[in-house]
Amino acid sequence: MDFSISLIIIIITCIVSISAFSNQKIIEDLIFYPPAVSQHKQWYRFFSCGLIHADWAHLFFNMYVLYMFGMGQRKSGVEYIFKDVFDSKGSFLYLVMYIAALAVCLIPTYNKNKDNYSYRSLGASGAVSAVVFAYMLFNPMQGMGLLFLPIYIPGFLFGIIYLAVSSWLDKRGGGNINHSAHIWGAIFGIVFVIFACYIFSGYPVLQNFIEQIKNTSPSKLIQFG
């Protein structure tokens, strides 16, 4: 039987998140709380915070995106691309990327808030961003858009706009969304794929990325669903 790493992550995350909705202790034990890391060495919080979410909408959105880009329709997602590119190491490298992204995306947040007793962060958005941008690197011309809007642009353009908007929102501050985690998770996904391809495979990911963009007609940059 072909077990999906993405599906296992989704199931575990849903179980823990749903349990935490009605149990504040689970949230307090798992949430990313920088002073708990800096003063009590609770480094596990870099990873455990990805198992809990603020509400049903937060959980659904992250897991839906992970399903779409991690598994993909007819097994076209990053997990299966990894299996094609890295052979027997594919599933392991995919899991490593996801877990590492949970922590890496929060390093800037930690450095900024290590003594901030009012700061907390939760959710798997940073790791999910790593998966999405890894997919964009392999499929830069795949049309992407927002939910319920029938307008699609190539993934590489969507990624550039996403990073620009997230950076602006992060600098502006305010709100309850950790835009920094989204940005660094996305960047980590790209860097991880590039280095993994260089070390574990001869797959020319950057060359293919550039060639796909160069060989696309400008008329296909915007599509309507």
Would you write up a description of this structure?
The chain is mainly alpha-helical. Helix 6 crosses helix 7 (90-104), helix 9 (125-138) packs across helix 11 and helix 10 (155-172) crosses helix 11 (179-200). The chain has one domain (5-224): Rhomboid-like fold, CATH 1.20.1540.10. It has helices at residues 5-21, 24-30, 34-40, 45-48, 56-71, 78-86, 90-104, 107-113, 125-138, 155-172, 179-200, 205-214; strands spanning 143-144, 151-154, 223-224. Strands 1-2-3 form a 3-stranded antiparallel sheet. Strand 1 (143-144) and strand 2 (151-154) form a beta hairpin. The two termini are 35 Å apart.
From the structure above, extract its key features.
225 residues; mainly alpha; Rhomboid-like fold; 3-stranded antiparallel beta sheet; 12 helices; 4% strand
Give the structure's gist in a few sentences.
By secondary structure, the protein is mainly alpha-helical.
Question: What is the strand content?
Answer: under 5%
As for the number of domains, it is 1
Rg is: 18 Å
Biggest sheet strand order reads: 1-2-3
The number of helical segments is 12
Can you tell me the overall shape?
A: globular
* Strand-pairing-aware structural class: mainly alpha
Helix content: 55-70%
| Spans of at least 5 consecutive residues with low confidence | none
What is the CATH C-level name?
Answer: Mainly Alpha
Average pLDDT figure: 92
What would the CATH topology be? Rhomboid-like fold
Q: Largest sheet, described in full?
A: 3 strands, antiparallel
CATH architecture: Up-down Bundle
